[in-house]
Design a protein that fits this description.
The protein contains 23 helices and 15 strands. The chain is an alpha/beta fold and about 550 residues long. The chain is globular, with a radius of gyration of 24 Å. The model has no long low-confidence stretch (mean pLDDT about 95).
């Protein structure tokens, strides 16, 4: 396989491990834990894995001889930069336990476990993928592990390959699956440990001990580079308004981080829209007013960052989508039997009066996107809704009204962008390369410690990587109950942008200046070689959160 010059150079990069993981480790147990909410319900659903203590690793003075261990690994959900390094770290970690340990990758996600599709990951394969982007080493998938039949089918191949531990690399839903699987295997006495790893570029899988999910650092740096390029063009041509939609369905962490890195004229934060009970028109008016202010100063150009999940955070839209999700889950067959031309009216007739009114007011294209193309969890695929075009169209309409009122005199020429897939498989930044390798190596230590139902946790991430703290957090600690497919299910609680948090407060203190002036920052491409202040810095979100 032909390789670029960068690929060859990155293959030689040796990720930096926390010093605690470089020798023998011992387990230090913390206090028993509770779930973040719905404690009684979660305890009842996870009687064998609830209330486990947090775990921290410390250096051990006398190494003990390890035994060979066979481990399975699954990449689950959407891609995120650094997944290959998690697998590399896991491979090196189990080989350190014993050189005869073996690693098996299940092909195309959790479905590979159920369908018994796997490959043994040898050193020759692993070495081809170190420090590379993507999940192509074994592929990924979105099959949900939730039925006894799936668990039992998976157990068959685990027994056949003598696999005693399974590592699931994924986001909140995937790690929820890991917790359910760990509980089931524990309940039936199956000798299989299940360990999770925190992955999602959206940045919404985090808490006090999971400081960030892997991939967020690289993805936001990729997006910020391109936003910076657009802003340089914008400031050169001085005649376009760029509406840029960014990934982040359930939270606005990506938009906020990119705003902190690039200083755009406008950045909408979905969580603030919800907190202020703003309507779609309120958001439109906010953007239009900034466009008018800049036009009055002779600046008929600018940039607007929009999180892809914005629509779901507008309270009236959120109520509509919640009822739509339940309606289409309960009456899926009836809806499917309705002719396409009559589906809009069928939905209006089956919604409550308030939601029917909101649905009826939407442009036909947006309304249709809300009623079709659900994801595997029964939710609207908001990434398919062209929010950037909807907003720019409505802003243009509002500006025409303002021109008639005499409050706007300028030219408005919008351009549209959606940055999503461009960032999911980029070569990991040095931060993500180190963090992911540490997460995988740490997962091997959790396996060696004999625990199950834990997520690999590496903390202190604003410090040099050698000082990072390694350990594990019970997955049940992160869970609450949420409505999915019309029923209450245990899931890991998503971390939304905190409006009282330091990153948002920093953004809020600067946005008026960024709106009125042109204070663009151009981050440039990710740097892999050079001084640490250029190559090894974590996200601004992490730095502000930890006052670093």
């Amino acid at each position: 396989m032909k390789k670029s010059a960068l690929q060859k150079a990155r293959a030689a990069y040796q990720p930096k491990l926390p010093i605690v993981l470089t020798g023998a480790v011992q387990v230090v147990e913390g206090n028993p834990t509770d779930s973040v909410a719905d404690q009684e319900a979660i305890r009842e659903l996870f009687p064998n894995t609830y209330g486990l203590p947090e775990i921290k690793f410390e250096k051990k003075s006398t190494p003990s001889a390890g035994k060979p261990v066979n481990v399975g690994v699954i990449l689950s959900g959407g891609q995120a930069p650094g997944g290959h390094n998690v697998i590399s770290g896991l491979f090196d970690g189990i080989k350190k336990i014993h050189r005869d340990s073996r690693l098996y990758g299940f092909i195309m996600g959790p479905g590979g476990l159920v369908d018994h599709k796997y490959v043994e990951l040898t050193s020759q394969i692993i070495d081809e993928y170190r420090n590379t982007g993507g999940f192509d080493i074994i592929g990924s998938g979105r099959t949900k592990l939730e039925t006894k039949e799936q668990f039992d089918k998976g157990l068959e191949i685990l027994k056949e390959l003598n696999i005693s531990a399974l590592v699931i690399i994924g986001g909140d839903d995937s790690n929820t699956n890991a917790a359910i699987l760990a509980e089931y295997y524990k309940a039936i006495g199956a000798p299989v440990q299940v360990i999770g790893c925190p992955k999602t570029i959206d940045g919404d899988l985090k808490n006090e001990v999971i400081e960030t999910s892997f991939g967020f650092d690289t993805a936001t740096k990729v997006y910020s580079e391109v936003i910076g390029n657009i802003q340089r063009d914008c400031n050169s041509a001085k005649k376009y308004w760029h509406f840029i939609k960014l990934m982040g369905r359930s939270a606005s962490h990506i938009a906020l981080e990119c705003a902190l890195q690039t200083q755009p004229n406008v950045c909408i934060i979905s969580e603030e829209v919800e907190a202020k009970d703003m309507t779609l028109q309120d958001v439109v008016n906010y953007v239009a007013d900034i466009v008018a202010r800049r036009a009055a100063a002779g600046n008929n150009f600018g940039t607007v960052l929009i999180p892809e999940g914005l629509i779901e955070f507008i309270p009236a839209m959120k109520k509509l989508i919640a009822e739509l999700n339940d309606l289409l889950a309960a009456k899926a067959d009836e809806f499917a039997a309705v002719e396409t031309a009559n589906q809009r009216q069928w939905i209006i007739d089956n919604l409550s009066a308030d939601n029917a009114k909101v649905y009826e007011s939407l442009p036909h294209g947006v309304a249709r996107q809300l009623s079709l193309d659900r994801d595997p969890h029964g939710n609207v695929q908001v990434s398919l809704i062209e929010t950037e075009k909807l907003l720019s169209e409505m802003v243009g309409k509002r500006l025409k009204e303002m021109a008639k009122e005499g409050t706007y005199n300028g030219k408005f020429s919008p351009l549209h962008h959606f940055f999503g897939y461009e960032g999911r498989c980029a070569d990991p930044s040095n931060f993500d390369a180190d963090y992911c390798y540490a997460l995988g190596f740490n997962a091997a230590c959790l396996i060696n410690a004999g625990v199950t139902g834990y997520m690999s946790s590496v903390r202190g991430l604003t410090k040099p990587s050698v000082q990072w703290i390694a350990g594990g957090i019970p997955i049940t600690m992160m869970m609450n109950m949420e409505r999915r497919h019309g029923a209450m299910k245990p899931v890991i609680q998503k971390a939304l942008v905190r409006l009282d948090g330091a990153p948002f407060q920093k953004f809020a203190s600067k946005r008026e200046s960024w709106a009125n002036n042109t204070e663009y920052v151009y981050p440039g491409p990710i740097q892999y070689f050079g001084p640490a202040e250029v190559c090894d810095q974590p996200t601004m979100t992490l730095r502000y959160e930890h006052n670093a």
